[in-house]
Amino acid sequence: MNGNAPTTANGALPGGGAASGRCPAGGGAAPGSPGCPIAIDPLVGALAEETEALRTAGPLARIDLMGAEVWTVTTHAQARKLLTDTRLVKDITRWNLWRSGEIDESWPLIGMVDAGRSMFTVDGAEHRRLRVKTAQALTPRRLEGIRPVVEGIAGRLLDALEAHAARAPEEPVDLKSAFAQPLPMSVVCSLMGVDPELEPRLHQLYEAFFSMLTPQDERLAVIQELDDLYAQMVRHKTATPGDDLTSALILADEGGEPLTPEEVRGNLEAMVAAGHETTVTLILCAVRALLTHPDQLQLVLDGEVGWEAVIEETLRWESPSTHLLMRFATSDIEVEQTGVVIRTGEGVVMSYRAIGRDREQHGQDADCFDVRRPAPIRHLAFGHGPHICPGAGLSRLEALVALPALFERFPGLSPAVPVTEIRNRPVLTQNELESLPVRLR
Fold it and tell me: Which residues, if any, are the signal sequence (predicted)?
């Protein structure tokens, strides 16, 4: 076997189509039921077909996640219930497949599930203790104080794009690498106090971490390098604190119990990872949607529809997270009106792309992008309940600055390739485009 090919936990090659699975040869079991899981394609070859298969399977579907058979939630109503169910926790030691040894560090998605101690991986009182300082730093009032930073970074990136357009007006540019990716990375690094010189290396490390084409031994080395980098940052900030969120986490003394260095590192690492990936996808998918729906773009440019509506509809329609890993049942959970019982020790994933296109919640046209949907637009792209994304406001702010500034600077922005040629990266958990080639004039 090619040593560079990604494999499942049981050694098999990934892929196989959106509705494939380990169904009995004689038939009878429906795709998405126990014993006939829907195989989630780590190479993201047919995202629309996969979403439809999950919706067809019902509110809860059984999926094969690179060799791990777990449940996934596909509807808005059930997601709201289960995201607040205290019987589902983030503690990997509650997972039956982990306890049995069927899943270990050779599993390509282990870094998303066994991610160290942070506000993203604990529950209850410990979760509140780890989250409170970050939440305080990202209130709406404090976000307004961050707005000039976002505007400054966006302005510099747009200046560089304008210089490119002046030099080579007919030459396409990749909006991802030139604008949508560096903007949120620079913003979150500024917020957390990360040295700007580290940003290019962080880009490389996260590209390798999320890609399903990265061999697992290399991914584990990437995880170790990230851990070492962030641990070094925490030591530096402990010795010389500054005006940034990492220093605030180090100095926080909530309830007489300060955060440990490991907890600060975990929060820092999680915030940088989550704080840039989501916004990259949000900006790119919003631009792609507007360029392929010029009538709606014109409504926005004419002021008849606000940019907030564009952002919320994009989050619903193309959720930045496709499959968010993972919670584990601490007892049997009988899911009302489904006939499903989530057994103790089973894993549960949230399939946010399917949830965002839930026809019961969003109507029969849920697969259509429409910025004129009646407000309020209720979606769960940033989660729900205690673990709702603490950086949701920051991501919205970045998009609210970036999108109007981009179209104001380049009103003739247009796709440089047919939209059908734009592919997703092989990232199972994120709805991440490989690139977005555009012409600026």
Answer: none
- Is the pLDDT score of 237 beyond 70? yes
Q: CA 122 to CA 258: how far, in whole Å? A: 16
Evaluate the omega torsion of the peptide bond into residue 386 and state whether it is cis, within 30 degrees of 0: no
What token pair was written down for 106?
A: 């050779």
Q: In this predicted model, what pLDDT tens digit does every residue of 151-196 receive, in sequence order?
A: 999 999 999 999 999 999 989 999 999 999 999 999 999 999 999 9
pLDDT tens digits for 143-163? 999 999 999 999 999 999 999
| pTM beyond 0.85 | yes
- pLDDT value at residue 178: 98
Positive or negative: CA dihedral 185, 186, 191, 192 = positive
Amino acid at 312: E
Question: At residue 22, does pLDDT exceed 90?
Answer: no
CA 188 and chain centroid, separation: 15
DSSP per-residue string spanning 269-337: HHHHHHHHHHHHHHHHHHHHHHHT-HHHHHHHHTTSS-HHHHHHHHHHHT-SBSEEEEEEESS-EEETT
Is residue 318 a contact partner of residue 366, using CB atoms and an 8 Å limit?
A: no
CA 428 to each of CA 16, 182, 313, 351, 421: distance values in angstroms, whole numbers, following the listed order: 14, 22, 22, 11, 19
